[in-house]
Write a structure and sequence with these properties.
The complex is a heterodimer of chains A (112) and B (417).
Chain A: H1 3-36, H2 41-48, H3 52-80, H4 86-111
Helix pairs in contact in A: 1-3, 3-4
Chain B: H1 2-31, H2 37-46, H3 50-78, H4 84-113, E1 126-130, H5 137-153, E2 157-161, H6 168-175, E3 183-185, H7 189-193, H8 195-198, E4 210-226, H9 234-243, E5 249-252, H10 258-270, E6 275-278, H11 282-290, E7 297-300, H12 301-309, E8 313-318, E9 343-351, H13 356-371, H14 373-382, E10 385-386, H15 391-412
């Protein structure tokens, strides 16, 4: 792993963390609004289905998670389990794809 | 501070385990059958199970802990806040945010899960928004059906007339009502299938804002003139209009309304040039006709029958292909204009998001109401025929009619900016 790649991962980890902090805050505001409005699942879906802005927001949310989680686990695997090298990175790449696929599947379910 | 970093890391590991499960479960519920709101409702009921509730709580708690640690790290690395006191203050702020998140998510889950939507519905009066003033065929149909449904449901069905903009005012109000089954919309066909082609700006989307329930009734229209009008037949009216192009006027229930389109259809078929006069509803347009403000109208039988029977209006022709039982002696317009036919319909749609169980119940109960002998008799008297098709059939019919009106409106250049 080159220094440059490590730097990129470090930046990606921090940048995705910052995005996640904003997304969580927005999600929090949305949930409070939904609760105060007494919205049911049907009403929530009526607002999210076909709404491109919500689709873009939750897609960003999922993408940030798919980036943040594997990079975080990479450090944990390396430092605590002494698991390094290509096998670790392959597993984490698979995890990133898994998170993105199933996250987007849920987002599409709410959007379509 | 080392402990905080450790907690952040441990919570991250746990989240990495729970989040994929959460995504998978939500996606599985929403991609399955039935899709849409019913799926989300069933997913939320599933989350009421103790084990699932525990894992959802675990995610929220872990997310809160992880968020605190993450914000602390970002502050230390990117802001010059290495001072212990300030860092702790930031962590405390993040904790407050996280607790808010926990509260909101747990309350949301509770609020959304609730009871099954159609259970015990309706438990209070149901509102029928009618997009035209009283006295028109839409209003008459809604009151007949609303009364019968009220008897079946043991609840009052309140008819609220919201006229204006060819039905657009009432449609916009219904579109933005809570989709809980307690507000239903009772439009005439044109509000759902023609207005989107006529109005440059429409404050509702007939396809996106509503879901079909059932086409309740339909009926032909009748070409009428005032009792003291010099025109005694369809031919005489057409001849007069041709002799003085652009002089004769016709009133209707509003731009884009069923009566407007029926009249435009007649004008088009007759090849005459007449000036349209929009009113706020069918009732007011007939009052204007009787008062001599306009020369003729092509109006729904239900709205005109009383005036015809009392001798205040003269029926010249019916828009059905054959003679109409309630108007004996009134010839079909097709006798003068071969092939001419026009039918109006009035149905029930619901704001998008209304639970499917409620839509099915309203459809089935309306069908039941329409099958009753007394309802059939009352509709017959009004010149209306029961329909009661399924939501799917109504949706398909509306799509076909939407395409038809798109063509007519384009050819007739009917446009409101």
């Amino acid at each position: 792993m080159t220094v440059r790649t490590q730097s990129i991962l470090w930046v990606a980890q921090r940048a995705s963390a910052a995005v996640l902090a904003l997304c969580v805050a927005t999600h929090l505001a949305t949930m409070i609004y939904a609760v105060r409005g007494g919205l049911t699942a049907a009403e929530i879906l009526a607002r999210t289905q076909g709404n491109t802005a919500w689709f873009a927001f939750y897609s960003l949310f999922v993408a940030a998670i798919a980036v943040h989680v594997p990079i975080g686990l990479r450090a944990v695997f390396g430092e605590w389990l002494d698991w390094r090298g290509a096998s670790r990175d392959a597993v984490l790449c698979f995890l990133a794809l898994f998170l993105f696929f199933f996250g987007m599947r849920a987002v599409l379910g709410v959007f379509q | 501070m080392k402990n905080l970093a450790l907690v952040h890391r441990l919570s991250g590991i746990a989240l990495a385990f729970f989040l994929p499960l959460h995504f998978w479960a939500l996606g599985q519920a929403l991609q399955g059958e039935p899709a849409g709101e019913a799926a989300l409702e069933s997913f939320l009921r599933w989350t009421d199970q103790p084990l699932v509730k525990f894992s959802e709580w675990a995610i929220v708690l872990l997310l809160a802990i992880h968020l605190c640690g993450g914000i602390r790290i970002l502050m230390i690395e990117f802001l010059p806040w290495r001072n212990r006191q300030k860092t702790l203050a930031a962590v405390a702020a993040a904790t407050a945010l996280a607790i808010g998140l926990m509260f909101a998510l747990s309350s949301t889950a509770h609020a959304q899960a609730g009871p099954a939507p159609a259970q015990g519905w309706p438990q209070k009066p149901v509102r029928f928004i009618v997009p035209f003033p009283p006295g028109g065929a839409t209003d008459i149909s809604a009151r007949l059906i609303g009364q019968k449904l009220g008897d079946i449901w043991g609840q009052t069905v309140v008819i609220e007339n919201r006229g204006g903009a060819g039905g657009g005012v009432g449609a916009a109000e219904a579109a933005h009502a809570a989709p809980d089954g307690y507000t239903l919309f009772f439009p005439s066909g044109s509000v759902m299938t023609a207005n989107q082609h006529i109005y440059a700006k429409l404050s509702y989307d007939p396809e996106k804002d509503f879901v079909p329930v059932t086409n309740a009734v339909s009926g032909p229209q009748v070409l009428v003139v005032a009792a003291n009008s010099p025109y005694k037949s369809v031919k005489e009216l057409i001849d007069a209009a041709k002799a003085q192009p652009g002089k004769l006027t016709f009133g209707h229930a509003g731009i884009g309304s069923q009566t407007h389109l029926a009249a435009e259809n007649f004008v088009n078929a007759a090849g005459i040039n007449a000036v349209q006069v929009p009113y706020k509803g069918e009732g007011p347009s007939l009052v204007g006709l009787i008062g001599g403000d306009t020369a003729f109208a092509v109006t729904n039988v239900a709205a005109a029958l009383g005036y015809i029977n009392s001798g205040r209006l003269r029926a010249l022709g019916i828009t059905s292909k054959t003679e109409f039982a309630q108007l004996p002696g009134v010839p079909p317009i097709a006798k003068t204009l071969p092939g001419f036919e026009n039918t109006g319909w009035f149905g029930i749609v619901a704001p998008t998001g209304t639970p499917k169980e409620i839509i099915q119940k309203v459809y089935q109960d309306t069908k039941k109401a329409l099958e009753s002998t007394d309802m059939r008799a009352r509709l017959y008297v009004q010149g209306l025929a029961p329909v009661g098709n399924t939501p799917e059939e109504m949706g398909r019919a509306m799509k076909e009619e939407t395409a038809l009106w798109a063509r007519v409106v384009r050819e007739r250049k009917i446009k409101v900016e």
